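dumping this here so i dont lose it
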């Protein structure tokens, strides 16, 4: 049986592309997660690993959807191998059903980790350069005057919808609710 696994890092991302690729590869069961790969707890992956039996094939869309480090990737694939479960990554065209697929798996795993490290290093360098230029990053703070206007509108106009209060004051709904919550505490 072919078992698929798809993961996206945030709830804003969409699993549809990965699921379509796994279905096209013949996966009969597909497990999913919407969680950062950094998090150790991935319920969909755990469920998939527990579901598979000897002779099954575990298929993913891309290596970085399964693991965030080469060590974790190798550990997972070795665990599959111990249970006589084959492994396939569609994007990298790695299939451990062959000995060359096993070799390619290790090479691409190292390359994927290298690419993630390069991205992380570039991001850190960019943030450091921005800080050196006086840029702190993050979201801009809402001016106190706007917040006071929004809170006054909220308290003095009980029939005025929140959306209208936010539009009139220029304060987001989340910001207004956050300040109202701190006001109650």
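and the seq i came up w/
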């Amino acid at each position: 049986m072919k078992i698929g696994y798809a993961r996206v890092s945030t709830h804003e991302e969409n699993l549809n592309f990965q699921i379509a690729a796994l279905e096209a590869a013949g996966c009969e069961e597909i497990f999913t997660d919407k969680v950062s790969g950094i998090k150790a707890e991935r319920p969909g992956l755990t469920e998939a690993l527990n579901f598979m039996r000897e002779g099954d094939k575990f298929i993913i869309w891309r290596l970085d959807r399964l693991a965030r480090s080469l060590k974790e990737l190798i550990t997972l694939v070795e665990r599959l191998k111990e249970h006589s479960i084959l492994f396939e990554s569609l994007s990298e065209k790695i299939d451990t059903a062959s000995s060359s697929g096993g070799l390619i798996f290790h090479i691409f795993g190292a390359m994927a980790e290298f690419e993630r490290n390069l991205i992380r290093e570039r991001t850190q360098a960019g943030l450091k350069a921005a800080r050196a230029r006086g840029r702190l990053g993050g979201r801009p703070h809402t001016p106190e005057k706007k917040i006071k206007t929004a809170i006054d509108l909220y308290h003095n106009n009980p029939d005025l919808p929140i959306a209208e209060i936010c539009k009139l004051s220029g304060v987001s709904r989340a910001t207004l609710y956050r300040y109202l919550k701190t006001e109650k505490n």
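The chain has a mean pLDDT of 88.
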